Amino acid sequence: MPGTPVGPDFPPRIEQGVLSPDGDEWRDVGYSGPSVCSVVGISYRQLDYWARTDLLRPSLTDAAGSGTQRRYSYRDLVALKVIKSLLDGGVSLQTARKAIDYLRDHLGEDLASASLVIEGANTVLAHTGDDIVDLVRRGQGVLNIVPLGGLVESLEASIHDLYAEPLGPKDGAAHPVRRPQD
Amino acid sequence: MPGTPVGPDFPPRIEQGVLSPDGDEWRDVGYSGPSVCSVVGISYRQLDYWARTDLLRPSLTDAAGSGTQRRYSYRDLVALKVIKSLLDGGVSLQTARKAIDYLRDHLGEDLASASLVIEGANTVLAHTGDDIVDLVRRGQGVLNIVPLGGLVESLEASIHDLYAEPLGPKDGAAHPVRRPQD
DNA sequence: CCCCGTAACTACGACCTTGTGACTCTGCGG
DNA sequence: CCGCAGAGTCACAAGGTCGTAGTTACGGGG
């Protein structure tokens, strides 16, 4: 697996409370709903739906009524991307829900080199190829495998694009990117 | 679809050959809808829905109006079981549809030792563990893996149970014939 | 030989899950 | 005080599942 160590600090990993480079408000931290959509490649309605059905809500700031904002952390982005992959791979939302519940508790681990493996009700992180062969051999039901390496990689790329494309006078991450894409 | 209530070539050519031991009617061949349900472990409504939406129709005799019967072959059973597994594994029906389309063309191969691998739009039969590791390494999206060995095995077991637990005194229609061996 | 019960199939519609579109509502910055 | 981005609401659609009622064929009892 490509353990490509990405830029250590480029995507601001703000969950610890880093502020915006401009020393602006705490609000400039994390990712807004629309930004998230363009980064992970889903529609706003989908993100909205997922948030209000508890699949994944923003861990930085949840919405508190009309006029407020949701702020997503980097880890949220990873989780979201995993969900998106699962969906694209033909896995049902229900299954994705369970997988994400598991993932949330293991987001600290070294994701880039691992694969997420779902077998029925159980979810596991496989760190080596042998782990996987083992699982396939033992498994009786279907296995759903998400190679996290490539996933994180393309996530980083999308984030990069987010910063590069729009030109806001002062804010980066907080800046909403209106970009029609399906 | 095809009228053919009782045509010239109606005495169906069974893939495993062999009519009922009693030299009975052609009807005693293959598996009836309800039998299939109990063997594969799905609801009758599901089987019905799948048949009318073309996911998988009985290859021996399709329905030709109310009062007629569907007769499923052993291979149909295998395909059905694969679908069931996919569903249990959280894979969407849509994805299962594509996989089955592929499987239908490869049902002749040696299934018991292989695994069905779905990656996005592509479906493949992997015969060795290395094949799988390879696919995981290359794959960017989600992989869905169905180990066919265990599947065929449990199918055989269910069929056995079906024979062991006779229901009516002479329910010919519900009685499948000839336990297959391929 | 006909009538009736039952197995198995078809028809039809309710209902759930996932979203989507079209608006409306509201807090915040200018 | 106004405009706007983004949250909230509501109606609706597609894809499936499920329950139930209506049909049809077949076989046994009168």
Description of the structure:
By secondary structure, chain A is of the alpha+beta class. Chain A has a single domain, classed as Multidrug-efflux Transporter Regulator, Chain: A, Domain 2, CATH 1.10.1660.10. Chain A is 39% helix and 10% strand. Chain A has six helices and five strands, in the order βααβααββαβα. Chain A has helices at residues 33-40, 44-52, 74-88, 93-104, 129-138, 148-164; strands at 31-32, 71-72, 115-119, 122-126, 143-147. In chain A, the strands form two sheets. Chain A has a three-stranded antiparallel sheet, sandwiched between helices. Chain A has a two-stranded antiparallel ribbon with strand order 1-2. Chain A is globular. Chains A and B meet through helix 3, helix 4, strand 3, helix 5 and strand 5 of A and helix 3, helix 4, strand 3, helix 5 and strand 5 of B. Strand 5 of chain A pairs antiparallel with strand 5 (143-147) of chain B, so a sheet runs across the interface. The structure holds a DNA duplex (30 and 30 nucleotides).
What is the name of the CATH architecture of chain A?
Orthogonal Bundle
Summed over residues and divided by their number, the pLDDT of chain A gives a mean of 78
In CATH's first tier, which class of chain A applies?
A: Mainly Alpha
> Order of helices and strands of chain A, N to C?
EHHEHHEEHEH
Number of helices of chain A: 6
Task: Categorize the overall geometry of chain A.
Answer: globular
Query: What is the total number of structural domains of chain A?
Result: 1
> What portion of the residues of chain A fall into strands of 2 or more residues?
5-15%
Largest sheet: spatial strand order of chain A: 4-3-5
Q: Describe the main β-sheet of chain A briefly.
A: 3 strands, antiparallel
Uncertain residue segments of chain A: 1-27, 167-182
Q: What class do helices, strands and sheet pairing of chain A give?
A: alpha+beta
The quaternary organization reads as homodimer
Q: Into which percent range does the helicity of residues of chain A fall?
A: 25-40%
CATH topology of chain A: Multidrug-efflux Transporter Regulator, Chain: A, Domain 2
Measured by residues with Cβ under 8 Å of the partner chain's Cβ, the largest interface is: A-B, 32 and 31 residues
Number of strands of chain A: 5
